[in-house]
Amino acid sequence: MSMARTRLLIVPLLIAAPFLFGGQVFAQGAPLAPGNFNGQLGPLALILHLTRSADGTLAGTLDSPNQGANGIPCADFHLDGSAFSFKVPAVNGTWTGTVSADGATLTGTWSQGSPLPLVFARDTFVPAEKPSAVDGIWLGRLGVPRALRIQVVVRSGNKGELVCSFDSVDQNAFGQTCTEAKFDDPELSFLIPTVMGRWHGRLSQDGKTLTGIWTQMLGATGKPSPEIELNLVRQQQRIAPTPPAAATFDPAIPPVEAAQLQAVLRQDLKQTLAAGVLAPGKGIGVAVGVVTRSGHQVFALGAAQPDQLFEIGSITKTFTGLTLAQLIEQGKVTPATPVRELLPPGVVAKPEGREITLLDLVTQHSGLPRMPDNFAPADPANPYADYDGARLEAFIAKHGVARPADAPFLYSNLGFGLLGYALGRAAGETYPQLLAKQVLQPLHLTDTVVKLTPAQQARFIPGHADNLTPVHAWDLDALAGAGAVRSTAADMLRYLQAQLDPAQVAAGGTPGRTLAAALKRSHDLQADVPPTMRIAYAWLHETASGTYWHNGGTGGYTAYAFFNPDQGFAGVVLVNMAGGARGSFADILGQHIIQRLTGKPAIALAQW
Predict the structure, then answer these.
(1) Theoretical Cys-Cys bridge with 300: which of 210, 304, 523, 536, CB 3.0 to 4.6 Å?
(2) What is the pLDDT of residues 163-204, one digit of tens each?
(3) CATH class given for the domain over 249-603
(4) Which positions ≥6 away from 390 have C-beta within 8 Å?
């Protein structure tokens, strides 16, 4: 990455999603006192302000500084034991989770169409009576000639701690938390974990300038960037975020059939294809597969070709769910089988009380965190590659497999990685081998793989960060069941057609004979995903529309898949670009396609 292309990198997750987003009397239970709680949703900082009225009811507001939105009213607060939830009606969002025993941490999931983990931590900061020499607002420029404005806010606490926040003003990424902030007059240093960056420098004698150096791990190489000069000047006023543009919609047209969709999208994406992310020379492309009752179509736009392979990220979880359904139908496991029983003997002790089952894992109700705490990639550009079975088993041995009472929906890459790993170990195979035998071969998905052949490698479209810079592909080891699959639009459409009509799946061999029943089982709704969805075997289900869907995102790709058995349509969108502060292009385009298929106003694509 040259200095002219310098950009802060947001480490992507395996699931990508758009980042947009009077109380009830609370019951006795976890101590949840009023106060401010800080959270981070992807690149967005959030602040939850909790208050309590004289009659004992909870109330509150939510700030989204990155979006210039403060004081968003919250409603419907419920606290029952440790279970806690609230709604944000203005953006049709719901947070559901649990309160820690000390009331300091709120662990849960934000749902606004796409569920994402969101943890709030109580803000216990008390300003020091005497500020340090570096307390205040600082502004500088990073990189030339297209320099990014960088804003840093430093505060000293009454316990001697130094805290700071980091804003990339021109990327509208505000409120990123600094760690390891240290001031040893005149030396100051801090880390920014979300972008894998470090700043260190020196305060001038007059206290008005911080002269320093910025380094950052580069997504394409996994190596530190060259040192970049980043000098900061004291400011009197903080720059505020730019509010996002209001969503706009293209007018509704009559429901589109599969054969018409490519022409319709070319018109809807006219600006994007000419000057947006799909414009010539930018390297970004999209492959689309769609089926309606009248037929099907596979096509590509931008830099993609219809037969190219993409990483599908967390859509892999639906393949893992179908693999589990296959093994259940074959009598090898049951939904109630404890995952502990599929791991090597002695890995983890049997807990007292209820333990995590395979059904808990496949429905995201295991209580496991999103990621293990021993996840420390040697190469941030390929972060999952060295997380092997030994590390996974070590984490499970330490964490245990006890299931919390009334565990809420909590999206967990760890949980699905564990599910795929355990199923493979029990079968005496690796996860890719088991997946191929149980799902890929019976469905004749010859271009859906974990490891590419040389011929497939030649058709594997290069991935890009959201700033259009090339990035390394992701390889997953022990957590493969959470997001390791690569596929084409044609193969994914064949997979979705099987979801639409399981009865038409041809039987052949033992896996084939159980596949139709396994597909049906994998659609059975098992648990709620507040406020308006339920979950089957990984597939999320929108109650109002009857559409099943899942999305995915890796370091250089996003994907969105959906099917609606009642209305007889299905589709997939594959993009070789990661999600960013605007969300996921694959998600937005996937929702646009559904709206075109159903004759509704379609979310405008001009911003891309």
Answers:
(1) 304
(2) 998 988 887 778 788 889 999 999 999 998 777 789 999 999
(3) alpha beta
(4) none
Nearest to 313 by CA among 66, 55, 584, 107: 584
Q: What residue type is assigned to position 35 of the chain?
A: G
- Choose among 200, 232, 204: nearest CA to 215: 200
Distance of CA 97 to the CA centre of its chain: 17
Question: Residues in the chain, how many?
Answer: 608
Pairing state between β 527-529 and 83-88: unpaired
Between helix 509-523 and helix 316-329 the angle, nearest 10°, is: 110
What would the two tokens of residue 405 be?
């009472």
Tokens encoding 299: 């096509």
C-alpha to C-alpha distance for 593 and 606, rounded to whole angstroms: 15
Higher pLDDT, 182 or 146: 182
Distance between CA atoms of residues 366 and 353, nearest Å: 14
Residue-wise pLDDT for 393-416, tens only, equals 999 999 999 998 888 888 899 999
Instruction: Give phi and psi for 71, each to the nearest 5.
Output: 75, 30
Q: pTM higher than 0.85, yes or no?
A: no
CB 242 within 8 A of CB 172: yes
Using DSSP bridges, classify how beta strands 69-73 and 75-80 pair: parallel, antiparallel or unpaired.
unpaired
Q: Is 367 left (phi over 0), alpha (psi -120 to 50) or beta?
A: left
Taking the C-alpha atoms of residue 267 and residue 296, their distance in angstroms, rounded to an integer, is 19
Could you give the CA distance from residue 307 to residue 447 in angstroms, rounded to a whole number? 9
Q: What is the DSSP letter of 437?
A: I
Exposure pattern of 15-33 as b/e (b: 16+ CB <10 Å)?
Answer: bbbbbbbebeebeeebebe
In 3-state terms, what secondary structure has residue 440?
Answer: helix
Calpha distance 35→98 (Å, rounded): 16
Q: Where are the alpha helices (DSSP H) in 400-488?
A: 413-427, 431-435, 454-458, 480-483
Residue 270 corresponds to which tokens in the numbers above?
């006219």
Structural tokens at position 21: 């987003």
Class level of CATH domain 136-235: mainly beta
**3-state class (DSSP) for residue 90:** helix
Domain boundaries, the chain: 21-122, 136-235, 249-603
Burial of 223 (0-12, 13-18, 19+ CB in 10 A): exposed
Of residues 363, 365, 410, the one with CA closest to residue 110: 410
169-173, 343-347, 415-419, 575-579: the lowest-pLDDT one: 169-173
Say what the pLDDT of residue 380 is. 81
21-122 carries CATH number 2.40.128:
yes
Beta bridge partners of 286: 301, 575
Q: Give the residues across from 95 on adjacent strands.
A: 86, 110
